[in-house]
């Protein structure tokens, strides 16, 4: 192997290490944060998928240069075909990430508009009951201090839990399932390509 081929092989393996790992992690983590409706994390994962998806083209380019036009080998043709399929699936994942992010932002905007602008009035406690002085008891009467109502008034009522918005339920059912399925297929394709390259390389 010449020095030029060694350089191409180093670049080929380097792009595979630094591109495939992060993009696989980003695509597989996306459904979890879509279910949580975390717009900032989904936006970051979408950007990571786009950047590392473009870097995977370096793997394909340097692989073509290493082949030296010998495309008659079955394993090489199969590897290139699988890579093209995986890249198309990555484009679908990136599209679904953008759609999910848009729906999350719309859901957050609707929830913020529907929130009440006024704060609840403070709970007023009744004045303490007046009792007779200790040194002058009143004959024939009993002093009763009812602290139950005051304790109930001072205890704040528990806040009702918010029901999930319909948009969040739709995200959990549509985008999360599709992204999880496609990212699993893409990860399997990377493994098959790796096995073909190591077995026949």
Automatic annotation (TrEMBL):
It comes from the Bacteria. The chain crosses the membrane at residues 6-30, 51-68, 74-93, 179-199. Residues 143-152 have a biased composition (Basic and acidic residues). Residues 118-130 have a biased composition (Pro residues). Residues 111-169 are annotated as: Disordered. Keywords: Membrane, Transmembrane, Transmembrane helix. This is DUF2269 family protein.
């Amino acid at each position: 192997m010449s020095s030029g081929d060694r350089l191409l092989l180093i670049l080929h393996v380097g792009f595979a290490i630094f591109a495939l790992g992060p993009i696989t992690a980003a695509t597989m983590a996306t459904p979890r944060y879509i279910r949580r409706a975390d717009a900032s994390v989904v936006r970051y994962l979408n950007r990571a998928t786009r950047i590392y998806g473009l870097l995977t083209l370096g793997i394909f380019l340097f692989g073509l240069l290493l082949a030296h036009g010998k495309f008659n080998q079955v394993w090489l043709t199969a590897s290139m075909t699988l890579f093209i399929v995986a890249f198309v699936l990555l484009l679908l994942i990136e599209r679904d990430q953008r759609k999910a992010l848009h729906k999350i932002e719309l859901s957050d905007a609707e929830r913020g508009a529907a929130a009440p602008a006024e704060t609840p009035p403070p709970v007023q406690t009744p004045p303490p009951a007046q009792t007779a002085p200790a040194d002058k008891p009143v004959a024939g009467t009993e002093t009763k201090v009812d602290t139950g109502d005051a304790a109930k008034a001072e205890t704040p009522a528990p806040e009702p839990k918010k029901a999930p918005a319909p948009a969040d339920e739709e995200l959990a059912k549509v985008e999360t399932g599709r992204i999880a399925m496609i990212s699993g297929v893409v990860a399997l394709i990377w493994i098959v390509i790796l096995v073909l390259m190591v077995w026949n390389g």
